[in-house]
Request: fold
Amino acid sequence: MDSTTLPFLIAILAGWVSLNCGLIVIYLLVTGETLNVNLGFRQRKPRKPPSSAATPPADDSPVLVDENAGAWGLFVMFDDPTLALNERLGMLLGAAGAVYESSSKSFTLAGESPRNPIYIANAYPPGRLPSFNNDNGQIPVKGVSVKMLKKSRNATPNKLQLVRLVNLSKELARAGGKVMDVEKQPVTASGLQAVIDGNAKM
Reply:
């Protein structure tokens, strides 16, 4: 073997290796695969999408204060008012212990705090309800207001009475209606819990 043969063979071998390496690189680029060779470099961790927990929850706290009426309260609006519903409403109010006030033609529920009773009245003017004892009324009740009167501007509602107010509103809504806040917006289950927790908009 003369002195020119060895360098010539090395050049051919190097060219062949380079060609194969180039073909492998082109194949990997086209297919998107990797060799998974750990060269000691720290791999960058993929960025996590922002967690849904980081986003603030939607504010569904109901508005509880009716400034015009000077009261805290909710409304129960009935989907299909009928005279039969009037009778059912009378039974529910009687079972809850509500007492009919003939002077105001509304119901009063002393509940846990007799000094701050719950009033149940017709949600529509003139705000009168039948007694439901001997008279279920001639007109179906479309909705009722369930409220506690504010004794003063800075007064806060009794927490036990708030629980009673929410429970009574839910009972009446089961007769075929929806609980709404004073802005006539539907109140969700979490919204009712916000009322009990004292987180409603006062």
Residues 51-58 have pLDDT under 50 and may be disordered. Residues 65-196 form a domain with the Cell Division Protein Zipa; Chain: A, fold (CATH 3.30.1400.10). The chain is about 30% helix and 15% strand.
